[in-house]
Design a protein that fits this description.
By secondary structure, the protein is mostly helical. The protein has 6 helices and 2 strands, in the order H-H-H-H-E-E-H-H. It has helices spanning 20-34, 36-40, 42-48, 50-58, 74-94, 129-134, and strands spanning 62-64, 70-72. Helix 1 packs across helix 5 and helix 3 packs across helix 4 (50-58). The chain is elongated, with a radius of gyration of 27 Å. It starts with 19 loop residues before the first helix and ends with a helix.
Length: 135
């Protein structure tokens, strides 16, 4: 997701152009949302902001095919796939197993206040092994 910081131009700010990697990451996000329409819109980008398109072409993320249409290169596909996997694993890291609040108690999860002595036929998964080993 793009982050922007807006301020009034006073002449003292430094302009730092975006890297081709970051530009392509944003471009690939749009491609995931809108598909080939984004590639078709690159002709319009060529007229409005040719320096952005030149940067993506020079870095090898996009190219033109025999018919003159823009296509994503193998390098671009690899970067987009890598970013998608990184995002996927980032999401899974944020929600580690068992670290979320829930009212539901799954198998093997007991609260000590609800514990009772083991009776034959009770699920072994519900044994409080910590307390059991202290005896």
């Amino acid at each position: 997701m793009a982050e922007f910081q807006y301020s009034r131009w006073d002449g003292t700010q430094q302009f730092s152009p975006q890297s081709a990697d970051r530009l392509f990451d944003e471009f690939s996000n749009y491609m995931m949302d809108y598909g080939d329409q984004v590639l078709n819109m690159l002709d319009q980008l060529e007229e409005e902001n040719p320096e952005i398109l030149d940067l993506l072409l020079k870095q090898g993320y996009i190219d033109r095919d025999e018919e003159g249409r823009y296509v994503v290169t193998g390098k671009g596909v690899k970067r987009a796939g890598t970013r998608a996997l990184e995002d996927l694993f980032e999401i899974s890291r944020k929600d580690k197993l068992g670290s979320h609040e829930t009212e539901f108690r799954g198998a093997g999860q007991t609260v000590h206040e609800e514990s009772k002595p083991y009776e034959y036929g009770d699920p072994v998964a519900n044994l409080n092994m910590h307390e059991r080993s202290r005896r």
